[in-house]
């Protein structure tokens, strides 16, 4: 097991992954390509294409790209649907279903016009299939069990084959018992790079991708509750929770692309600090230039992908997160009453006589919980745990940091540590005298002691009635 200190210390990217060298070509071309399995949750370095048309590969956050083999001009991949153990954060391992050793499955990268053959082996205990979300393909390759194909029985391998007709960012996931199989983590990314320079697809220096996913795993257990429809307690990026989500490390003035796909059951407004981006593509393809506008938050609906492009021209450690505040929290009870402003010393004294371990929660807010070492059941994610240079960050879940550095080397994704602020550029405490604030007086029309029953704001009440 890796402690958080080690985890953060060794940087975001495995320095020398040998994945690319894990050749699939040893097996005779007539046989199945040997499946490549990867169980590390580290962000793998971009996989430079060893064969086929060249392209600028993506970096999958806490993930990897599946190697392929060329067979008579066809790119062959081998996906294995199987139970996996995913370290969602150090000390918390979830029992999920995924592909080739992990959830999400490996990213598949091809080039527009490539002929692609995908072998899918089912090592689950029930039928599965793969739907290639967003692709143009023959109807019988679309992967909807019952509609387009029979389900892949346990132990069997099916072959999908089609041409990657249009460039873009796509996803893959089962269309077989999908509520269960997606709740268990079966999903992955697919990138089709443009064949030539594309008028609507700029070349970028760094290209990141990740999937939004969500799980409901009770504290102390490891397997998601598959019947949960909306009330998930773990909001994850590529089945990881902050601070176990790697930072997005870029060099100052890099052109950066982040591709985010949503396979949860709710929308996620993904928010970037310090920069504004253009939504340059969806899973429908590149966005026309006339339809682009600058944003700092992109709401990504269920089953959507958004491709965000920006120039990283502000050095610093910039928060990058879902703007739904409960999505930057990890497993916690939902039934905790709001106790802010409640002095419960007396109550606590009485409860302690009955329950000796009782702990008062949230008297000044919930931030205290980030600093508290609470006894948690084994295999439980800390509620919020990120430690920054100024103390607890107070967020978990769907949160990471965009690290923009002038001295980051081209192609270097390793974690440079925390930003060193130039002197005089950090918010500081005012130590002068404080004048008493002038408060606005209640409007003369407000009659104290009068019951105002009007509820519609438009109906002319003054904002002080109703109590
Ligand atoms: Cu969210």
Which small molecules are bound?
copper (II) ion
- Euclidean distance between termini CA atoms: 56 Å
- What is the helical fraction, as a range of percent? under 10%
The counted number of beta strands is 24
Q: Which sequence of SSEs, written as H and E, runs from N to C?
A: HEEEEEEEEEHEEEEEEEEEEEEHHEEE
> Which band does the percent of strand residues land in?
25-35%
Q: What structural category arises from helix and sheet content? A: mainly beta
Q: Name the average pLDDT.
A: 84
How many individual helices?
Answer: 4
Radius of gyration, rounded?
Answer: 25 Å
Can you give a write-up of this model?
By secondary structure, this protein is mainly beta. Helices cover 6% and strands 29% of the residues. Strands 1, 11, 12, 14, 16, 17, 18 and 20 form an eight-stranded mixed β-sheet that branches. It is globular and about 80 Å long. The termini are far apart. It binds copper (II) ion.
